[in-house]
Amino acid sequence: MDTKSLAALGVALPEILVPGDGVDIRNWSVIACDQYTSEPEYWERVARETAGIPSTFHCVFPETYLENGDPEGRIRSIRRAMTEYAGSGVLKALPPGIVLVERSTPFHESRRGIVLALDLDLYDFRPGSSSLIRPTEGTILERLPIRVRIRRDAPLEFPHILILVDDPEKTVIEPLFADASSFPIIYDSDLMAGAGHVTGRFIPAHTAAPRLAGSLEALLRPGRLRNRYGREDRLLFAVGDGNHSLAAAKSVWEEKKLHLSPAEAASHPGRFALVEVVNLFDPGIQFEPIHRILTGVDPSDFFRHLRSRGGCMLTPAQPGESEDLLGGAPGPFDDVAIIAGGRSTFLTFPDNGGGRPAGVVDRIIDEYIGAVKKGRTDYIHGRESLVTLCENADAVGFLLPSLRKDMLFPIIARDGVLPRKAFSIGEASEKRFYLEGRRIDVCQER
Q1: Bridge-based pairing state of the strands 15-19 and 133-134
Q2: Does residue 342 sit within a domain?
Q3: Whole-structure pTM over 0.70, yes or no?
Q4: Which of 164, 196, 263, 280 fits a disulfide with 104 by CB distance 3.0 to 4.6 angstroms?
C-alpha cells in the first residue's frame, strides 16, 4: 500500500546503481555539466584527471564544449562509456530503495537529501503547468536537443537534478537522517577540485516507503496548501537545479510512450527520472543569483544604448561600494550591478516585474544584441568568476541580487515559472556531482 501511495505522489524507489568496489569516487564523480561554461580550463583539468579511468565525465556532455569540437563524436563516446559501465563491474545495483546523501561544501557544513525516482507523467515543464512536479524557471528549448539525443538511446542515466520540497517543519527528509547511523554507508569520499565531501547511506524500500508516503502526503493537506499558497494548489516538488535535464527526460519519455501499450508504459524505466530531493529549508540550501555576461561588445556603446532605452536608472557605485562588489564582499544589494572596465554601476528598475530582475536584464541584453547584431550572453555562477571574466575589454557583466527562498513556492503556485536562470542553489562548486545512476532501457532491466 505504501508503494501505491508513493506512486500517486509521483515517487518510485528504484534499483539505484553506485560505483563498484575499486572505483575511486573522487574521480568517478564530476560536477553538473552546465557549470564553468565560460571556464574551459576547469573541464580540461577534469579530462586530464579522469583519462583512462571510470568516471561520469565520460557519460556527460559539458556545455563548455557545445560550440566546439565534434558533438556527434562526443555523443557516440558517451554511449560507448555507458554501455561499458552497464555491462561491467564498474557499477553495482542496490536493492529497491533510496540513498541518503549528505554533502559538505566550502560554504556549508552540510546539505542533506534523498535519491529516488520521480514519475515524468506527473511533471510538465510547459508554461502554466499545474502538475505535481513543476519547473521553477522558463525552459530554454534550444538547450534540450543535445540532452535529448544523449538520453534517447542511453542505457543509463546519471542525474545532477535537485528537487525541492517546501517543508519548513522538516518532516520529510530530516527524520530519516535522525536514524542515519543505522543504515550502511555505500560511498564516502572527498570530491574533486576542493568541492567538499559526500557520504551516501542506503535505506531499503520496505523501510523508506511508509515513512516517505505519510510525510509527503501531509504536505498536500488542503488546509496547509491554502495557508501557504492561498489556494489548494497541489504543488509537491519544484525543480531546484537541472530544469533542462528533467525537461529532456520528459521529452524523450513522451516520444517513447507513443510506441508502448498502457501496461508497458506503466512500468517502463524511461517513465522515471533519478533525482535528489532536498528540503528548501535545509540550512545547506542557499539561493545564489545566476549572473549574466555580455561579451564581444563595446561597453561604452552598450551604456549609450541603455541610457537611451529608458525605464531604468544608472547610478555609479561609490568607491567603497565598487571595491566591495568587485572584491566579492557578501553584502546584500537590491539592484543589479553592471561591471565593465573594472568599475561598477547600479541599475535600478522602478518596476522590475514583481521582484524578477533576471527577466528584465535578459530583455535588455536581448534587445541590445538584436539592435547591434553582435555579442554573446552567458550565465555565470559565482561573483568572483564574473568579476574575473569582466576584466576583458569587450565584456559587460551583470551582478544580480538573490531571491529569498521562502518566496519560491508561493511564486510558483501563484504566477508560474520564474525567468530562465533566475537563481542557483549555492555557488558553482556546490552543484550536485554525478554519482548514482539507474538503468533506463528495457533490455538492460533484470
Answers
A1: unpaired
A2: yes
A3: yes
A4: 196
Q: Exposed, middle or buried: residue 178 (CB in 10 Å: 0-12, 13-18, 19+)?
A: exposed
Give the per-residue pLDDT at 428. Answer: 87
Cβ contact 405:306 at 8 Å? no
Number of domains in the chain: 2
Whether residue 248 is found in the same domain as residue 295: no
Q: What is the mean pLDDT of the chain?
A: 92
Number of other CB atoms surrounding residue 38 within 10 Å: 18
Q: Are residues 135 and 249 in the same domain?
A: yes
280 and 324 fall within a common domain: no
Tell whether 416 is covered by a domain: no
Residues 275 and 326 in one domain: no
Evaluate whether residue 419 is within a structural domain. Answer: no
SS3 278: strand
Report which of 121, 113, 37 is spatially closest to residue 278, judged by C-alpha positions: 113
The helix or strand, by DSSP H or E, that contains position 234, with its residue range, turns out to be none
What pLDDT score was predicted for residue 381? 82
Confirm if 210 and 3 have CB atoms less than 8 A apart. Answer: no
CATH number for the domain that contains residue 302: 3.30.1760
Question: Which stretches of the chain drop beneath a pLDDT of 70?
Answer: 1, 69, 322-323, 325-334, 350-355, 443-446
Kindly state the cell numbers that stand for 95: 536493492
Name the CA dihedral angle for 423, 428, 429, 435, rounded to a multiple of 10 degrees. 70
Which residues, other chains included, contact 135 with Cβ-Cβ below 8 Å and sequence gap of 6+?
Answer: 125, 129, 238, 239, 243, 246, 247, 417
Q: How far apart are CA 295 and CA 45, in angstroms?
A: 24
pLDDT tens for each residue of 152-179: 999 999 999 999 999 999 999 999 999 9
274, 97 contact by CB (below 8 A)? no
CA max distance for the chain: 67
The answer to whether 30 touches 189, Cβ cutoff 8 Å, is no
First to last CA, the chain: 24
Residue-range definition of the domain harbouring residue 174: 2-284+426-444
**Element (DSSP H or E) covering residue 238:** strand 237-241
Q: How far apart are CA 10 and CA 122, in angstroms?
A: 6
CA distance 48 to 35: 17
d(CA 442, CA 268): 7
Residue entry with cell 515524468: 120
Strands 313-316 and 343-348: antiparallel
